[in-house]
Amino acid sequence: MLKQFFFATIVTIASLPSIAQTFEITSSDVGSDKTIPNKFVFNGFGCNGNNLSPEVAWKNVPAGTKSFALMVHDPDAPTGGAGFWHWVVVNLPASVSSLAQGAGTADGGALPQGARQIQTDFGTSGWGGPCPPAGAAPHRYRFTVYALTVDKLDLPDNATASLSGFMINMNMIGKASFTALYGR
User: What pLDDT is recorded for position 31?
Assistant: First the structure.
């Protein structure tokens, strides 16, 4: 009897459909819940990093994805509640599954063809590394990749990070995030 139970359990488990894997974003440069290394820190406002964008990659993309967007946000910035946008990239083709270290240059020249960067809260396009106020507790930097139902977001040339975020969320079919830390 016990032998039949185990055999029936094994057959049942073996016949279950494979479980879908979860959409995921990672970085070989910046670890989840780890301190962001100095080479990715902003160079200005009292910070002296290299302001190099970290590598990011994603996998297990939702079916039907036509493009991606990437947003990096500091919800702890003392801005009156809005937080601070450090990097916004839209119109990443569905064939792309990563951005290399250094892809976030202001001119966007290292991004995949068709991709576009939106002005950050530093007032420029491209990666703007962490630079929280001196003496503050470490801030959280949330890296989020969004899978979108459209090939391209129709955004005006002067689109803000908030407008971009609104349009991204209106066209999202999935998202994946991790949070890194930085304080000084």
Answer: 93
Number of domains in the chain: 1
Its pTM stands at 0.88
What is residue 20's predicted lDDT score, i.e. its pLDDT?
67
For residues 75 and 69, what is the distance between their CA atoms, to the nearest angstrom? 18
Q: What is the CATH number of the domain that holds 71?
A: 3.90.280.10
Q: What is the pLDDT of residues 91-107, one digit of tens each?
A: 999 999 999 999 999 99
In a domain, residue 150? The reply is yes
Phi and psi dihedrals of 170, rounded to 5?
-70, -20
Identify the domain containing residue 147 by its residue range.
21-182
Report if residue 34 sits inside a domain.
Answer: yes
pLDDT < 50 regions, the chain? 2-18
Residue 71 maps to a domain: yes
43/46 Cα distance (integer angstroms): 8
| Distance in angstroms (rounded) separating the CA atoms of residues 98 and 85 | 20
Give 116's contacts (C-beta < 8 A, 6+ positions apart): 89, 90, 91, 108, 155
